[in-house]
Amino acid sequence: MISDVLQKARDFETQYGPHIPDTERPAFHATPTIGWMNDPNGFSFYQGECHLFYQYHPYSIEWGPMHWGHLKTKDFLRWKRLPVALAPDEEYDASGCFSGGAMELPDGRQLLMYTGVQRHHDAEGFIQDVQTQCIAIGDGVGYEKYSLNPVLSKKDLPKGGSAIDFRDPKVWQGSDGTYYAVIGNRTEDDSGAILLYQSHDCLEWEFVRTLDRCHNQYGRMWECPDFFELDGKQIILTSPQDMNPIGLEFHAGNCTLCLMGSFDPEKGFTRERVQAIDYGLDFYAPQTLLAPDGRRIMIAWMQNWDTVGSKPSHCRWFGQMTLPRELSIENGRLYQRPVRELETYRRNPVIHHHILVSGETNLPGVQGRVLDMTVTVKPMGPNSYRWFRLHVAKDGQHDTIIRYKPDESTLKIDRCRSGLPRDIVHTRSFLVQPQDGEIKLRVVLDRFSVEVFVNDGEAVASAVIYTRQEAEAITFEADGQVLIDVEKYHLVFDRED
Ligand code: FRU
Known about the structure:
Blueprint: H1 4-16, E1 35-46, E2 49-57, E3 67-73, E4 79-86, E5 97-104, E6 110-121, E7 127-138, E8 143-145, E9 166-173, E10 179-186, E11 192-199, E12 205-213, E13 222-230, E14 233-240, E15 257-264, E16 268-276, E17 284-290, E18 296-301, E19 317-318, E20 325-330, E21 333-338, E22 346-361, E23 370-379, E24 385-394, E25 399-405, E26 410-417, E27 427-431, E28 439-446, E29 449-454, E30 459-464, E31 473-491
Parallel strand pairs: 1-19
Antiparallel strand pairs: 1-2, 2-3, 3-4, 5-6, 6-7, 7-8, 9-10, 10-11, 11-12, 13-14, 14-15, 15-16, 17-18, 18-20, 20-21, 22-31, 23-28, 23-31, 24-25, 24-31, 25-26, 26-27, 28-29, 29-30
């Protein structure tokens, strides 16, 4: 039985979604069918295909009562649209079906675990959203909410845990057959914690332990946790609200953290290192999956709560996901590389070796807005240049600049002139590690975004841009003298059969 609320959302997207021309969307980044998108949800494999759900408000380009939109893909790049999966149609989720995870059950059904939000009034009459964890089970298209929802509520919290900030379950099955979920929570000191729960059947859950706590060191509430093993390390990803900057590593507002450490079932998680996940302007709420071939792949909302006020006025969709990225741990850091499937869509190679750049120049065949380009910047000797700038999405009025300063080892992304209509944060700088004085920048452009992968994934910076598509010049500029190698491909996505 489909509820009226769900049917209405499905009818709305079927009627109005197809009006948005493909050319007004990114070529290969996931976008909502229509309206608003935020966090990736339920990023997982089901019956051999990758499913991606997302926080969705189809009726406007603003956040509203959350539904779960639904996409699937065979290659992480070409997305097939499926009908809205969840709508806020029960008492326990009437104010929204918030973020969560998904997995395939042993009997072949697909399980969704999400946060149900229900509005209450506190003693002073103020509105409070109470959050519980809920289950829906389906066949990859249609889902039925569990009759005994919610499966986790206030009574299942550890002492001091907040029932108002208790959300975003990420669910998986351990090698011992037990089901686990990590859930974000706020503790009595008003800062974030990540709680671990377990279940023998995915329906009855019990609290195991607090995996890690913020103690007001890294922001306040920790949203959207993930927890997995990667290259011998145990990793927690989380998205803190209200961060303070720490040097060039973390920025104010909504930030993202990778906590690296070890896990022992008796002692729990021991944190060893903390780093930012993405150093650009638009990146939040990442979620990972384990692909059947063993790759740990991450996708995130390529947006940030602090930047959502800047929208092109005419758009009928808002919010997009990052390029899915393969994760690894190298030299004690989280490395991210575009999924290797991207390389199968490379066309028209343009290769230039050993080009001297002094002042500003362009190169034959190097332009475009949907492309994959690697630029290696090499000094001509000690202090041969003060800075190098790569300009993309450029015309007389616009450009997006990636600037490297060798004396500081900093990279800066600057989208002040990239068509965003509001005065929000447009620049960010971060530290990089040149190798033998060289720096390698892999830049992936897709109509409305730029993602820069530094030194084979040691650091990544993502940003949304709205520069008109005709602005497709690319130039290289140096204050001083550098040598560059450039390898550039157009990305061409044929229609899926
Ligand atoms: C993160 C978040 C989640 C929540 C969802 C609501 O961006 O705030 O914590 O579940 O968005 O849309």
